[in-house]
Design goal:
Blueprint lengths: L2 H16 L6 H12 L7 H8 L3 H10 L11 E6 L2 H19 L5 E2 L5 E6 L11 E3 L2 E3 L4 H14 L1
Helix pairs in contact: 1-2, 3-4
Amino acid sequence: MSELNTMETTVQTIITALKDKPGALLPILHAVQDALGYVPAESVPAIAKALQLSRAEVHGVISFYHYFRDTAPGKQTIHLCRAESCQAMGGKNLESHVKAHLGIDYHETTADGKFSLEPVYCLGNCACSPAMQIGHEIYGRVSTENFESIINQAEDLA
């Protein structure tokens, strides 16, 4: 079965299971993203039709909520903390460095598909600001210098 057929089957199964719930759009979008890692543009027409919505309405919800991705994520996601403590401890400089090093902005994926970059607004590691998370691992006191070694280790796993 091709990748497109698998995606279509997965989306249709989710739609069938959830379309009759009140406010079904968000549960469907969450389930699709949980299953596929993102909400493919190809799934929008089927979702819209099942819920008697326009494609624009479905796309509007996907683009409004930062949680939803419309592109496949990288093998690993880097969550960079943007909360006040991290900002006060050099987070803005780290953010610029990370974006330049990876060649991407928030909600994007590197060309090689290894990493996606997402903002997060607290990792609960404020005493060790600035912080970031890769996969399940949280890193504290991240600087532009030690980011290089952290990302090199993560690349080996990606």
